[in-house]
Design a protein that fits this description.
With 581 residues, the protein is an alpha+beta fold. It contains 18 helices and 16 strands. Strands 1, 2, 3, 4, 5, 6, 7, 8 and 9 form a 9-stranded mixed β-sheet that branches. Strands 10-11-16-15 form a 4-stranded antiparallel β-sheet, covered by helices on one side. Strands 12-13-14 form a 3-stranded antiparallel β-sheet.
Length: 581
């Protein structure tokens, strides 16, 4: 049985309710373009909102991180990955959490106890040493020599400078064929972290004072790719059952062995998988030069460049063969992969064709540069890379033929600068999990419901939300529409929202069965992401949506709604940017 199934079955037997994976493109989270951790979609509930499925939850969550993009190509890094998680929302705490983790690893996955070690929090002058967790581990059979007490950087989790915080305990596995040492050395990288249990038990105020939280939560996460590699005894994730058949397809297409071509094959496998998940997401992301679309374009083009390195015929259907293998692996777990299969294949094919044209334009651009008979500086080399997709190796190769030099160091500096911008501005940074949901963001969240309802009145009831993004400064709302809104339509939409704010409509919440909610007319952007029991938020009689919150109590709290811009987002999708004044 698949490890995902074993995990869910185990925790369901322990009283947890399985909840669906949230979409990879988050709804109303200003901190990131993608869901970056299993706990991210559960932020409102970790902050105190009651979850409609109860206090014990488990899932496998689609995640995407780009902070290590340049590391992809080694044995362990991936852009897309799955996170296995279980949560206690004010129910059980350290003893049960640690016991469940230990039992699952040793009894279900049959991992020998002697290959395990853990770290726990060493304590500070304000937070006590976590002797409780250490004692629980000892009682389960872990020797003292395998328990390390570490500091704030390693074993303390915090939402931000203020707010919920607490110690965590990390579980490590000896990933080596050498004899397992008696004592656990956290600095020895043969000990690989496989699971992290976070205990949210304190609150930190502006002065750094730490007090006990009235309701304590447990948040755990275990990387699926890593645990599969561990139990299958491979030191290269791409040799595990998750990747072997995908790599085999690349070997067949390229007529080359994996050995000796590992980096390019890993990048192709990883990037095509991630691109399939992004383009299959209900948010309808297409390759573009901004936000999620930019990341999608960058991943596809990087895969193409590495396919060329393997001498794959780019004009063949190579990307389709790889994507179909990936889709077959995941469609039983994620409905959108099956439903949007053709969309994903079309996105890959069209971007491949478009990139082929771009490379041709790049060759013409290079000819113009070369005719100057001057060495190529870093800025020019980076322009060829960023605008035309020229890897630095291609620029050097072409330049060498013409006896020209390329400023590689200058190129790398530009590349580093670009990566930093991508990491902070484009990708965004996950701020520890619970840093969002400020008062103004809560207001904007409610305003998206009003805007959705107003657009239905103005444009038609077939208009639906296609995505949104909220910051403390503005809201962004995507919706399906076949035309640019007229000034009259924009004004009418704005007026409707402001009238409903002025009407002081009450915002109410009910928990009910998902099917019942749909029968009552509740709308949901991604219906498949919600569990069987859902929260339905109603605003007067003008809006009824399935949603995770948070929301204001009354529309009168919102202030004045103002549309700042209306523009195209992608084919058949328009975007409104608006503010609350």
């Amino acid at each position: 049985m698949n490890v995902k199934d074993l995990y869910i079955n185990y925790f369901v037997k322990k009283g947890h309710t399985q909840i669906p994976s949230a979409p990879i493109v988050p709804e109303n989270d200003p901190s990131v373009l993608f869901n970056t951790a299993g706990m991210q979609p559960l932020i409102p509930y970790l902050m105190g909102e009651p979850h409609p499925s109860g206090k014990r939850l488990c899932d496998y969550q689609k995640c995407l991180r780009l902070t290590d993009l340049e590391e992809v190509g080694d044995t362990t890094h991936h852009t897309f990955f799955e996170m296995l998680g279980n949560w206690s929302l004010g129910d059980y705490f350290k003893k049960e959490s640690i016991t469940y983790s230990f039992e699952f690893l040793t009894s279900v996955l049959k991992i020998p106890v002697e290959r395990l070690a853990v770290s726990v929090f060493a304590g500070t002058d304000r937070v006590p040493k976590d002797t409780e967790s250490a004692s629980i581990w000892e009682s389960l059979g872990l020797p003292k020599e395998r328990i390390a007490f570490l500091g704030m950087d390693d074993n303390f989790w915090a939402a931000g400078e203020t707010g919920p915080c607490g110690s965590d305990t990390e579980i490590f596995y000896w990933r080596s064929n050498e004899n397992v040492p008696v004592e656990f050395d956290p600095e020895d990288d043969r000990w690989v972290e496989i699971w992290n249990n976070v205990f949210m038990e304190f609150n930190r105020d502006e002065n750094g004072n730490i007090t006990n939280l009235p309701k304590k939560n447990v948040d755990t996460g275990m990387g699926y790719e890593r645990i599969v590699s561990v139990i299958e005894g491979v030191n290269d994730n791409y040799n595990s059952s998750i990747w072997k058949d995908v790599i085999a397809v690349i070997e067949k297409i390229s007529k080359l062995p994996y050995q000796g071509n590992e980096k390019s094959m890993r990048i192709i496998a990883d990037h095509i998988r991630t691109s399939v998940f992004i383009s299959s997401d209900p948010a309808g992301i297409k390759p573009s030069n901004t936000d999620q679309g930019y990341i999608l374009r960058r991943l596809i083009r990087r895969a193409i460049r590495h396919a060329k390195k393997l001498n794959i015929d780019i004009n063949s259907n190579w990307e389709e063969q790889i994507a179909k293998q990936i889709i077959a692996k995941y469609e039983d777990y994620y409905t959108e992969i099956k439903e949007n299969k053709n969309i994903a294949l079309t996105v890959l094919k069209e971007e491949k064709i478009k990139f082929g044209r771009t490379l041709e334009k790049g060759l013409k651009e290079f000819e113009k540069i070369a005719q100057r008979n001057e060495n190529i500086d870093g800025t020019t080399a980076f322009h060829l890379y960023d605008t035309y997709g020229f890897p630095i190796e291609l620029t050097i190769e072409l330049a060498t033929e013409r006896k020209l030099q390329v400023d590689e160091k200058g190129f790398q500096e530009k590349m580093k600068e670009h990566q930093e911008k991508s990491r902070t501005a484009s990708v965004g940074k996950f701020k520890g999990g619970l840093a969002g949901n400020s008062e103004i963001e809560t207001k904007y969240h409610t305003a998206t419901h009003l805007l959705n309802a107003a657009l239905k009145e103005v444009i038609g009831h077939d208009t639906h939300q296609r995505g949104s993004n909220i910051t403390e400064e503005r809201m962004r709302f995507d919706f399906n529409c076949d035309h640019k809104l007229t000034d009259e339509e924009k004004q009418k939409t704005e007026d409707l929202v402001n009238q409903w704010i002025k009407d002081s409509l009450e915002v109410t919440k009910e928990s009910m069965n998902k099917q019942e909610a749909l029968e009552k007319g509740a709308e949901a952007m991604f219906i498949e992401k919600y569990p069987d029991i859902v929260n339905v938020y109603s605003i007067g009689n003008i809006s009824k949506e399935i949603c995770g919150g948070p929301h204001v109590k009354n529309t009168s709290e919102l202030g004045h709604f103002k549309i700042k811009k209306e523009e195209a987002s992608s084919a058949g999708v328009r975007r409104i940017k608006a503010v609350l004044e």
